[in-house]
Amino acid sequence: MVIAPRGPRQDAVPEADAAAAGFPSRLPPHNPNAACGPGLPGPPHFLSAHPGPPVLVGGAARPLGRTSGRMRSSLVPLGPPVSQDRVITSFPKCYTPAACLQLREHFHGQVSIACQRRSTGTVGLRLSKVVVVGDLYVGKTSLIRRFCRNVFDRNYKATIGVDFEIERFEVAGIPYSLQIWDTAGQEKFKCIASAYYRGAQVIITTFDLTDLQTLDHTRQWLEDALQENEPGTCFLFLVGTKKDLLSGAACEQAEVEAVRLANEMEAEYWSVSAKTGENVKAFFSRVAALAFERSVLQDLERRSSAWPQVGNGDLIRMEGHPPETQDSERPSSLGCC
Questions:
Q1: Looking at residue 120, what is its pLDDT?
Q2: How far apart are CA 5 and CA 200, in angstroms?
Q3: Where is the composition biased (Basic and acidic residues) (predicted)?
Q4: Percent of the chain with pLDDT strictly greater than 70
Q5: In this structure, are residues 281 and 85 in contact, taking their beta carbons and an 8 Å threshold?
């Protein structure tokens, strides 16, 4: 019986196609400019359609999903382009200067230069954690869904535990994302939600403009959230919801009390309406810009401290005495035997 040699499998992927698809090849590709698999030298891959979130594979950032074998430009961002209303080119303004975290109307100079040079490090691959807290039925979920999905529903059910949305931006030409956590306002879920406060870059404390008792409760909500984070590491916002339910005069009167409390909290104040969408996009754009700017500055500081300083930096001075010789270690005189 003669057994014919087996031919190649029909579903086998040629080595050249495997390299173009992002799979590791047995040998380095002959063309140094061609796309390579993980761990091999060459330009990175970029998404072509329906990508997942970027992940780290072999120390290099790679997106999940299909990849393209050719790189159109060294400045092509990971992932598909964000929607136009998520593109931030200039620094968003605050709601009122009376309770504002930053009055500057432009990005920090170092941040602008880093963005122009595309030297923002890994900021574009990170998520900034945003935690939204407040009483039951003040409109936390409505606020988040209006921004992330552009929908409003009067019949929302109370959030059980926690939920979150991830929203992608492009800030000064750099991709950036917010992970927005929606926490339950019910007391029985407070112990569960508090575990998700840790590691927040932004804390948004919400209240109902039509019920100022919920404004008084924001002190405790903020205190609970801050207990899980290091002091001075979070941007704080105080947000009044349901602005559409108040007349102009009534809204101004409620805002006077809210601004006073925001200043006590060292927070920035905003009034919004999830029903009409008033100020919702502007508010979250402001949140994204502030969080992005701090992330870039922190990354620049880490990278600068990683390099040894040469020149006028602090020098290490070695204090000591000249080395002693063998003769100096001997006794000055030797006794006679």
A1: 75
A2: 61
A3: 316-330
A4: 66
A5: yes
Q: At 182, is the secondary structure helix, strand, or coil? A: strand
130 and 276 part of one domain = yes
> Are both 60 and 162 inside the same structural domain?
no
Contact (CB, 8 A) for 241 and 209? yes
Query: 124: closest CA among 68, 44, 69, 70?
Result: 44
pLDDT at position 158 is 75
Query: Which one, of 79, 89, 150, 148, lies nearest residue 115 by Cα?
Result: 89
Looking at the predicted structure, is the pLDDT value of residue 155 above 50? yes
Average pLDDT over residues 239-250: 97
pLDDT at 133: 96
204 and 90 within one domain: yes
Considering the domain boundaries, does residue 147 fall inside one? yes
Q: Which residues pair with 167 in a beta bridge?
A: 178
| DSSP element (H, E) containing 87 | strand 87-88
Structure tokens at 145: 């869904």
Based on the domain organization, do 173 and 229 belong to the same domain?
Answer: yes
Q: 73 pLDDT band (50/70/90 cuts)? A: very low
- Which one, of 266, 263, 212, 265, lies nearest residue 242 by Cα? 212
The DSSP letter of residue 121 is: T
- 273-277 long-range contacts, CB within 8 A, separation 24+: 273/241, 273/242, 273/243, 273/244, 274/139, 274/142, 274/143, 274/145, 274/146, 274/152, 274/241, 274/242, 275/142, 275/146, 275/152, 275/242, 275/244, 276/243, 276/244, 277/146, 277/150, 277/152
- Give residue 192's pLDDT: 77
DSSP per position, 7-33: ---TTPPPHHHHHHHTPPPSS--SSTT
Residue 47 sits in which domain range? 15-67
Q: Give the whole-number percent of the chain exceeding pLDDT 90.
A: 52
The mean pLDDT value of the chain amounts to: 77
